[in-house]
Amino acid sequence: MYSNRKNIFKIDWTLILVYIFLVGFGLANILSSSISGENISFFDFSTLYGKQFVFVLASLLVIIITLTIEVKFYERFSSIFYLVCIFFVLGLFIFGNNINGSLSWYSFNNLTIQPSEFMKVGAALAVAKFISDIQTNMKKLSDQLKLLLIIMLPIILIILQNDTGTSIVFFSLFFVLYREGISQIYLLIAFIILSISILTIKTSISTTILFSVIIILLNYLYKNKKSRSIINSSMIFLFCIFISFLTDYTYNNILKTHQRNYISVWLDLEKDPIKIKQMKRTILYNLNESEKAISSGGLTGKGYLEGTRTIGNFVPEQHSDYIFSTVGEEWGFMGSSFIIVLYIILILRIVALSELQKSHFSKIYGYSVASIIFLHFMINIGMVLGLTPTIGIPLPFLSYGGSSLIAFTLLLFIFIRLDGNRINEW
After folding, report:
1. From CA 45, how far away is CA 54, in angstroms rounded?
2. pLDDT (tens digit, 0 to 9) for every residue of the chain, 426 residues total?
3. Would you list the DSSP string of 353-404?
4. Which of 37, 233, 279, 362 is least enclosed by beta carbons within 10 angstroms?
5. C-alpha distances in angstroms, 308 versus 133, 286, 304, 319?
6. Do 370 and 354 meet the contact criterion of CB atoms below 8 Å apart?
7. Cβ–Cβ contacts within 10 Å for residue 363, how many?
């Protein structure tokens, strides 16, 4: 055991340096987005930046513990960690505190904890453990269903707590299944479902039916005679119709008004200029002010602590989900592009190191980490820029929040520890 721990500093410093910069830059921008003229003191724990400073110190403790734990511990106890996370997510239905309409938090005096953030770590470990198990055969339907249950269980529980944004992140783990050689038919089905759903919302069920008929006829005509099957074509057609009706019912009867409005704006469904103007003052206020803040930054930005819209608190939740708008206003296009490049380096580096892993568990876990960070990065920045629907998820390492920062730190440094074991064994 000692021989495995004595070289813990033989780790990938590229990932660590990117992590340090992102966390430090995030703390600086949280300071910028939360001060209001008072004297700055990181030891004033009544302020957002003071609390975030404590979270950073707690993350350092997590890093030390994570890097000193025996490597085999993570694989051996991954299932237990997953079940513990599920237990705490379930506990929210009894002991959870409803904040902003979401039952996602435990509250202890002034301290709040969001278990769903740590659930991402648990799910990544569980997926890696299950796929890497010698008894698992990803070509068997029974094993595919078991893996589907591992991923879908936290998704269902978190959706029931009215935290749809966080639940979407777990779908990123399906990228890992594709990398592991699962049949491409599943990707095709997912693409069909997404396309049919968007077409149904964008147009109507009748248009979707017509589109499905055309696609099936073309597919039938251009296939050779041996591959033609009226039964298969009929099954595909019925599946498309089912998805279309299910989407229409869900959109009009299950989704809440603000969720429908976000989708409506994203798909450019609303044409009434009066209603659009009204929406910009209500549900689109955050997005509208965020876009104004970013555009006002220009090429090089207004300068640190000089963002007028940031200092004026024009963008609600600017320290958390909309932290990138602070970056855009104060650091401009150049600074924003630099941060995006850092995230790309972080993700690609994790993928590259995952390819080098000798342990199948470490490889799958690395892919899971990269997928989760990628989806957070893509959705959060896309949301702030108006390119994706408004979904309340943080920007990894930059956004305010102890649960988010500590969970992402744990997620990343478990992989760094696993990769460090590969380096030490060379």
Report:
1. 8
2. 444 455 556 788 999 999 999 999 999 999 888 776 556 666 666 788 889 999 999 999 999 999 999 999 999 999 999 999 999 999 999 988 887 778 888 988 778 899 999 999 999 999 999 999 988 888 888 888 999 999 999 999 999 988 888 889 999 998 888 777 677 777 778 888 888 888 888 888 888 888 777 777 766 665 555 555 666 677 777 888 888 888 888 888 877 776 777 787 777 776 667 776 676 666 667 777 888 888 888 888 888 888 777 776 667 777 888 888 889 999 999 999 999 999 999 999 999 999 999 899 999 999 999 999 999 999 999 888 877 777 778 999 999 989 999 999 999 999 999 998 776 655
3. HHHH-SSHHHHHHHHHHHHHHHHHHHHHHHHHTTSS-----PPTTTSS-HHH
4. 37
5. 54, 16, 11, 15
6. yes
7. 23
**Distant-in-sequence, close-in-space partners of 43: CB < 8 Å, separation ≥ 6:** 50, 53
DSSP-based three-state secondary structure for 384: helix
φ and ψ at residue 98, rounded to 5 degrees: -80, 115
Please identify which residue in the block is written with the tokens 């029974």.
Answer: 142
Which residue matches tokens 């069909």? 192
Q: Where are the domains of the chain?
A: 1-69+287-359+384-399, 71-182, 187-254
Quick check: 59 and 66 in contact, CB under 8 A?
A: no
